[in-house]
Amino acid sequence: MTTTVSYLLATRLSQAGITHHFTVPGDYNSPLLATLRNHTSLTETTCTNELNCSFAAEGYARARGIAACVVTYGVGALSAFNGIASAYAENLPVILISGAPNTNDREAFHSVHHSLDNGDLDFQVEMVRRITCKAVVVRRAGDAPRLIDEVIRWARWCRKPVYIEIPVNVAREACLLAGPPSSVLERRRGDAVGVDDAVRKVGEWVRAAGAEEVLVQVAEVMGCMVAVQPAAKSMFPEGHPLFAGVYWGERVVEWADAVVCVGTVFTDYSTAGWTAVPEVGNRITIGMDQVTVPGGSGMIDRIAPLRAHGGSALTRKEISRQIENLLTPETTLFVDIGDSWFDAAQMALPDGARVEMQMQWAHTGWSIPAAFGYAMGEPERKVVVLVGDGAFQMTAQEVSQMTRYQTPISLFLINNRGYTVDVEIGDGFVNNIKNWDYTTFLDALNSDDGYGRGYKVTKAGELQQAIERGLVNRRGPTLIECYIDRADCSRELVVWGHLLGEANRRQPAVF
Question: Mind listing the UniProt keywords for this protein, alphabetically (predicted)?
Answer without folding.
Answer: Decarboxylase, Lyase, Magnesium, Metal-binding, Pyruvate, Thiamine pyrophosphate
